[in-house]
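Alpha/beta hydrolase family protein, Duganella phyllosphaerae. Tokens?
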Amino acid sequence: MSAPSVLYLHGGPGLGPVFERDRYPDATHVHWWRQPLAKPCAARPFLDLQASALEELRRLAAERGAPVTLAASSFGAHLAVHLATHAPELIDRIVLLAPTFDPEQAALRLARRAFRVHTDHPGAGQLAIALAAYEDDPGRPRFWDVFGALSLLPDVTSLYFGPNGGAAAARSFAELIEQPGAFDGPTSVATSDDFSAIDRRPVASPFTGSVTVLFGAHDPLIDAQQDQTVWNVIFPQAEFFKVETGHFPLLELTLEECGIGA
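Tokens:
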């Protein structure tokens, strides 16, 4: 059997590819790479993750004997940018699925959406207080207060999905995220905080191959018009498409519809 032709960089940080593997058990052409967890007391967990991703790309390209396709979801897009900067010769093409350029602002958008949906829930008041405190004093401590208040609301993960066919994906996501290994909180916090400390100004990538970007029309985390401007700086050659999904096109569409079919 030949080596997979697609390296998948899942979202998160702290999530695993359990959702994608469950949906596409026979997609042997995709390497559903499980990103390593942050090491305890690691000084720079996001930089460690970048290094691991680059090592995985080099391993897979060597095994295949040819450049590979990068498919990156949500936060995984930042790993794709790193790989495109440091090893463009190992990449055939790039597919970005709901790429999240600013995860902190994306989470705040989700929190505001959740507040509007659950205004009458007892936890909505606490979320409103946390959001107001963040507006007065932005920063990671206040951000995590918002995240904590958000977690008190019901069915928050269902907001990730679109209204047309996303219900089944939302149910599966809610069930799978409870499984061991689906999400690691310490890795999420450590990696997110380290990422927030780096210079995130968009810079043009040396990768000149094909880049496709899919934005979900019902994505509560992303402002597609604003984010397209940013991603167009990084990949001027990118083609942008809006699809009828939420934040996880790969969990609502098919591999072919996402541009990474066999």
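The mean pLDDT is 96.
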